[in-house]
Amino acid sequence: QVQLVESGGGSVQAGGSLRLSCVASQNTFSKTAMGWYRQAPGKQRELLATAPRGSDRHYTDAMKDRITVSKDTAKNSMFQQMRNLKPKDAAVYYCNAVSTIYSWGQGTQVIVSS
């Protein structure tokens, strides 16, 4: 079973930036489409972006134009650069596959103060 570890979250002021990282225990980023998700308190987990096996990227409307996803398949890693953060972006951020979901990691918490 693939294990996923997210990191890079923290507390920032509105307008700030963060770079999140996701490391997988196996070589998954070159084999299956992976995505970034987030879950805010009291809300359902939502998909933010997908990174298929190639170089394509797809962003949902949730944070479109404010995030950029990249991968380093040699290091079993995926990254999400977030900019112009808003208080509504406060959530726990996760990475996971898009189709066959692996076990969820602990996520990384993002706090945005106004």
Can you give a write-up of this model?
This protein is 0% helix and 47% strand. The protein has 114 residues and is mainly beta. It is globular, with a radius of gyration of 13 Å.
Keywords for this entry:
114 residues; 0% helix; 47% strand; globular
Q: How would a textbook summarize the main sheet?
A: 6 strands, mixed
Tally of separate helices: 0
- What string, H for helix and E for strand, traces the elements in order? EEEEEEEEEE
The outline comes out as globular
The proportion of residues forming helix, as a percent range, comes to under 10%
- What average pLDDT do the residues reach? 95
Strand content: over 45%
Q: Which blocks of ≥5 consecutive residues have pLDDT under 50?
A: none
Structural class by helix and strand composition: mainly beta
Number of strands: 10
Strand order of the largest sheet: 2-10-9-4-5-6
Q: Gap between N and C termini, in Å?
A: 40 Å
Radius of gyration: 13 Å
